[in-house]
Specification:
Distance between the termini: 47 Å
Number of helices: 10
Structural class: mainly alpha
Radius of gyration: 20 Å
Number of strands: 0
Order of helices and strands: HHHHHHHHHH
């Protein structure tokens, strides 16, 4: 991978994420800033990618180790915002499923609150993983061998935590899909569209995650390295996967109707859920849907 190649790829990413940032801002304005909804993390992802790729272009031109470190840290943060958006989207779908449960339609595992608990607490290990990954990526560029080794260990622990969280999200998605797809007539169109986007994104996020795992654990191949790796592999296993996932989530955010304020509070388990005032209001029971 030549410096010119990485700069071309960085320019392409800037060209993609600038309009993605504008669209994500529109979605956040439409749906609200509530972090439980997850849409704000689309904005954060776009900003991270714009800053990181600008730093990579500058690093290639100036051969600055500091800029290379900053770009590496930004490049390593892509999975975090994507999974945070996924959690927010699944929380909305989960709340809709709980509404159907309250109306007498059995929800299986949902009745035990397993999906709710996982989605409520899933952000914590993800944030830990992001911190470990950022610190580890920075240390990988240090000349000191002990710091380099420590950085590799931190990055590996971080990506393993992300892998475990992703596997949990796949299970939650499967549970919600099995419930909602079998009862599509009882679930609002907005929630179905959001779930379709999450289900469609799972394979792309999986490939993106596999790429990160290979970067961290494949020590024999020159294809999967932070510096000097194959640009086509990076483009098709990392960049393209993120683009497709972002497009799916942007489409879901634009097509799904916003939740009324009471519904946004319901994502915390504090109030009722509604999509608009003409629809019945659901007050979540304390059992299996704890307040935060």
């Amino acid at each position: 991978m030549t410096l010119q190649d990485t700069s071309i790829l960085a320019i392409a990413e800037i060209g993609f994420y600038f309009p993605a940032l504008l669209l994500s801002i529109i979605i956040v304005i439409r749906h609200g800033l509530n972090r439980e909804l997850g849409w704000i993390f689309l904005c954060i992802l776009a900003l991270i990618r714009l800053i990181g790729n600008a730093e990579e272009i500058a690093a290639n031109q100036n051969h600055s180790n500091g800029l290379f470190i900053a770009a590496a840290v930004c490049n390593g943060l892509g999975l975090g915002p994507l999974l945070l958006v996924t959690i927010g989207m699944l929380k909305r779908v989960n709340t809709a499923a709980l509404e159907n449960q309250a109306h007498g339609r059995r929800a299986g595992l949902l009745q035990q609150g397993n999906t709710t608990k996982f989605l409520n607490w899933g952000r914590l290990p993800l944030l830990v993983a992001l911190v470990l990954g950022a610190v580890g990526s920075a240390k990988l560029y240090r000349s000191d061998q002990s710091e380099h080794s420590q950085g590799k260990t931190l990055a590996r622990v971080g990506i393993i935590l992300i892998l475990l969280l992703f596997l949990g999200l796949v299970v939650v998605t499967a549970v919600l899909a099995s419930y909602i797809f079998l009862r599509s007539s009882h679930v609002k169109v907005g929630e179905r569209r959001i779930l379709y986007a999450v289900v469609a994104s799972i394979p792309f996020i999986a490939v993106r995650l596999i790429y990160s795992l290979l970067i961290n654990f494949d020590t024999t191949s020159s294809t999967f390295t932070l510096q000097g790796g194959n640009i086509f592999v990076r483009a098709f296993m990392s960049v393209l996967e993120e683009w497709v996932t972002v497009i799916l989530y942007l489409a879901a955010g634009l097509l799904a109707p916003p939740i009324a304020p009471a519904g946004a509070e319901a994502l915390h388990g504090e109030s009722s859920y509604e999509l608009n005032k003409s629809e019945p209001v659901y007050a979540p029971q304390s059992q299996g849907y704890p307040s935060r």
